[in-house]
């Protein structure tokens, strides 16, 4: 495939031409409106996993881009299997211009296949200005920056019913041990402590990652994510042991292990915030708020709130994130306008559009917190951005899909098996290592 760097908008002059801004001169945040419609008559095709409300809100961002540049946009929802859908479109000669990639592993896969254009100079400067270095690291493959992280998830949040904690007479805890003790008090008051979505293996990987990052620290987390550290390492066994104490405590988990294995993620939120609450707390990312609000009518900050996933075993409180990175495909029909879209997505202005719509967190540190529509969103965003370079990307999303992202196999299945019987952490670690070695070799 021929590289088409000469067709891309590069430099501050190009961004000003396309977006009608002065974003590159350090003269303050990009302002809304304006634009000289420099890309009028062109169309940018964007592919991503989003559907429903998420797609509608992202369309508002695309519409703002159109208003500035004159470029029309067309969004194609890929479903969860982005890699397969995009690959088939490339083979069929119908590649999108921009893809919103939800996993670091997929971004690396795309780059390895030679599908991606490196970001333009303007986009790179915006990343340097508006994002912590860690987001640049996760968008870089073999020294080239390909991915711009536009939407992030904060996966170190424990959501709770304020009424349940008040009834039990407990405060949001500061340490993992305090959290378990608070859970036992909640259980004594009549509700189960935690609703655990064990039917969805990905939620169990998130539990493990938070415990592991806090206990073992970021260096070992990075090494394990890259499989430079084996899953049989004592640090893994220690984290599994810690997690196993929760999994086997019938007082803490709603429905016990069997009940958890029959509960999917939406169901786990319903058991805390639905019409007939069965538990006081549910661990998962900031997106819990969207389910609690949209499906069960909860007022975020009033009858649904969160506390940060607490520090484990004397470590630092973890901040695990996920996110969607925008990339430009070489085989798209309009890489020039596609790169202009990424240059726009790198601005605080673009992030503000979705932040105002709701259901969104931005890793852009220069986004005005006032753009978020509620105090809880502002608090989660502050926690994510405030963590700076200590943020770590979801480990399972960095792994080959065969290990970290496939239902019924790999890490998902083995942690479900561990939830079912957490009596032998060493054996589970050995099974995880065997599965990881096979997947990373492949």
Would you give an account of this structure?
- The protein has helices spanning 11-19, 52-69, 82-91, 104-112, 121-130, 133-138, 162-168, 176-188, 201-216, 218-225, 234-247, 256-261, 265-273, 288-294, 335-345, 348-357, 375-386, 395-398, 401-404, 410-420, 425-441; strands spanning 43-48, 72-77, 98-101, 116-117, 140-141, 144-145, 148-154, 157-160, 192-194, 279-283, 305-308, 320-329, 392-393.
- It has 2 domains: 7-153 and 323-387, Periplasmic binding protein-like II (D-Maltodextrin-Binding Protein, domain 2); 157-318 and 399-441, D-Maltodextrin-Binding Protein, domain 2.
- The chain is 48% helix and 13% strand.
- Strand 1 (43-48), helix 2 and strand 2 (72-77) form a beta-alpha-beta unit.
- By secondary structure, it is α/β, with parallel strands linked by helices.
- The radius of gyration is 22 Å and the shape is globular.
- Strands 1, 2, 3, 4, 7, 12 and 13 form a 7-stranded mixed β-sheet that branches. The protein has a 4-stranded mixed β-sheet with strand order 9-10-8-11. It has a two-stranded antiparallel sheet with strand order 5-6.
Quick synopsis:
With 442 residues, the chain is an alpha/beta fold. The protein is built from 21 helices and 13 strands.
């Amino acid at each position: 495939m021929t590289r088409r760097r000469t067709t891309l908008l590069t430099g501050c002059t190009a961004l000003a031409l396309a977006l009608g801004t002065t974003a590159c001169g350090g003269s303050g945040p990009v302002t809304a409106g304006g634009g000289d419609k420099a890309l009028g008559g062109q169309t940018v095709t964007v592919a991503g996993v989003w559907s429903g409300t998420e797609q509608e809100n992202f369309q508002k961002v695309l519409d703002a881009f159109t208003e500035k540049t004159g470029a029309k946009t067309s969004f194609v929802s890929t479903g969860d299997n982005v890699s397969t859908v995009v690959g088939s479109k490339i083979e069929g000669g119908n590649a999108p211009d921009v893809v919103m990639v939800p996993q670091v592993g997929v971004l690396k896969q795309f780059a390895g296949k030679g599908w991606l254009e490196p970001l333009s100079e303007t986009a790179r400067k915006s990343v340097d200005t508006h994002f912590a270095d860690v987001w640049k690291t996760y968008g870089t493959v073999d020294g080239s920056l390909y991915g711009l992280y536009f939407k992030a998830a904060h996966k170190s949040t424990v959501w709770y019913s304020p009424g349940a904690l008040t009834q039990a007479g407990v405060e949001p805890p500061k340490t993992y041990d305090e959290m378990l003790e608070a859970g036992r008090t909640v259980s004594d008051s009549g509700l189960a402590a935690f609703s655990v979505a064990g039917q969805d293996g990905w939620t169990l990987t998130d539990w493990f990652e938070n415990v592991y990052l806090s206990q073992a620290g970021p260096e070992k987390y990075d090494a394990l994510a890259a499989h430079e550290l084996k899953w049989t390492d004592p640090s893994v066994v220690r984290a599994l042991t810690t997690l196993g104490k929760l999994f086997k405590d019938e007082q803490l988990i709603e429905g016990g292990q069997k009940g958890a294995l029959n509960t999917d993620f939406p169901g786990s939120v319903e058991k805390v915030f639905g019409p007939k609450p069965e538990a006081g707390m549910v661990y998962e990312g900031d997106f819990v708020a969207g389910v609690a609000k949209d499906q069960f009518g909860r007022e975020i900050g009033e009858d649904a709130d969160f506390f940060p996933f607490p520090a484990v075993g004397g470590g630092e409180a973890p901040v695990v994130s996920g996110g969607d990175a925008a990339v430009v495909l070489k085989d798209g029909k309009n890489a020039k306008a596609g790169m202009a879209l990424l240059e726009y997505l790198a601005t605080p202005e673009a992030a503000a559009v979705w932040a105002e719509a709701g259901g969104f967190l931005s890793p852009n540190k220069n986004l005005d917190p006032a753009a978020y529509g509620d105090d809880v969103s502002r608090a989660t965003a502050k926690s994510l951005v405030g963590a700076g370079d200590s943020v770590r990307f979801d480990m399972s999303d960095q792994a080959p899909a065969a290990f970290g992202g496939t239902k019924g196999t790999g890490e998902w299945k083995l942690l479900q098996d561990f939830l079912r019987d957490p009596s032998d952490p060493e054996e589970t670690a050995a099974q995880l290592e065997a599965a990881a070695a096979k997947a990373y070799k492949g």
